[in-house]
Design a protein that fits this description.
Blueprint (H helix, E strand, L loop, with lengths): L2 E2 L5 H10 L5 H13 L12 H10 E2 L7 E4 L5 E6 L5 E9 L2 E5 L3 E3 L8 H4 L2 E4 L2 H9 L9 E4 L9 H12 L11 E5 L3 H10 L3 E5 L5 H7 L8 H8 L10 E7 L7 H10 L6 E6 L13 H12 L4 E5 L12 H10 L1
Parallel strand pairs: 1-2, 6-9, 9-10, 10-11, 11-12, 12-13, 13-14
Antiparallel strand pairs: 3-4, 4-5, 5-6, 7-8
Pfam families: Radical_SAM (PF04055), RlmN_N (PF21016)
Enzyme class: transferase
GO molecular function, one term: 4 iron, 4 sulfur cluster binding
């Protein structure tokens, strides 16, 4: 089985060329063909010598994996299902929105966090994705050169796969890679504090925190990570950083009807976010029969937004997209796994 070139940094490509006794500049040419020009095979890298292409082809391939399935929503959202090995099904979502085209990528096959409202968590954890597999979500679609934003909000906890997500960000943002601005990338976490601090110090990408409940006793019931990394401690760390520049901080909040949408929740959120310049992003829960939760009505969602705004919190309501194609995290892969059993 050949090794994949996709997902290698420029330094790693240079090391590969050195092993094959190829000129160092060949690495930059390979990166250009893979990440900018979008070739699918080594033979298409026509400014490489025939000898170089033959040497590479003996041991390597570009390594693009096309989606196993695609589902197109009425609103233009596209859900992609990939198979990265036996029973290793992962998802990405392409979301059109006015002048932006956002790709939501996964970072793990399954997830260890076991949040009680999430289909991915119920799959259990199989393995981390490599940087190449994460980059493949972008490179494998026809619209790869039209994507304006990347969000690490798919299957898995990104900071539980820290090294590979940072490596993928290097490929996305480097001049030899996709040359995407770091301000076009948002990484979400449920609150792994040590990796969150490391991320804030090592990158300039945006950060999103999955809050979903401000009360420790309630959050721990739906998000087990609260036991180790309480949301209060997460906010204490975030308060140490300056959020008044271009870097954005968002708190993601899936609204569960009658559970986390009261005045008291709004008041506690305002207390946790005191002194932090951030946006609260309210998200409609995607109701599924396997979970005992339901989504609020539009009127109830707007009322909760008003409660938050009464405490001077900047708040938005994320418009649900792709509901007709199971676009919520983990739904399509869970369905595929059920078919295979």
């Amino acid at each position: 089985m050949k090794d994949k070139l996709l997902g290698k940094t420029l330094k790693e490509l240079e090391e590969t060329c050195l092993k094959l006794q190829l000129p160092k500049f060949t690495a930059k040419q390979i990166a250009d063909w893979m990440y900018k020009k979008g070739v699918l095979d080594i033979d298409s890298m026509t400014n490489l010598s025939l000898k170089a292409r033959q040497a590479l082809s003996e041991r390597y391939e570009v390594g693009i994996v096309k989606p196993l399935k695609e589902a197109l929503s009425e609103d233009g959202t596209i859900k992609y299902l990939y198979q990265y090995g036996e029973n290793a099904f992962v998802e990405s979502v392409l979301i059109p929105d006015k002048k932006r085209l956002t790709l939501c990528v996964s970072t793990q096959v399954g997830c260890k966090m076991n949040c009680s409202f999430c289909s991915t968590g119920k799959q259990g954890f199989l393995r981390n994705l490599s940087a190449g597999e994460i980059i493949n979500f972008l490179r494998s679609i026809d619209e790869f050169d039209e994507v304006s934003n990347i969000v690490y909000m798919g299957m898995g906890e990104p900071f539980d796969n820290y090294d590979e997500i940072v490596k993928s960000i290097e490929i996305l943002t480097s001049s030899w890679g996709f040359a995407l601005s770091s301000r076009r990338i948002t990484v979400s976490t449920s609150g792994i504090i040590p990796k969150m601090i490391k991320f804030l110090n090592e990158t300039s990408c945006h950060l999103a925190i999955s809050m979903h409940n401000p009360f420790h006793e309630e959050r721990v019931k739906i998000m087990p990570i609260e036991k180790r990394y309480p949301i209060e401690h997460v906010c204490d760390e975030l308060r140490k950083y300056n959020w008044y520049g271009q870097r954005r901080l968002t708190f993601e909040y899936i609204v569960l009807k009658g559970i986390n949408d009261t005045y008291y929740h709004a008041k506690e959120i305002s207390y946790l976010l005191r002194g932090i310049e951030a946006m609260v992003n309210l998200i409609y829960y995607n109701s599924t029969p396997e979970f005992p939760f339901s989504a609020p009505s539009p009127k109830e969602m707007e009322e909760f937004q008003k409660e938050l705004e009464s405490f001077n919190l900047s708040t938005t309501i994320r418009q649900s997209k792709g509901q007709d194609i199971l676009a919520a995290c983990g739904l399509l892969s869970t369905k595929q796994l059920s078919k295979n059993k």
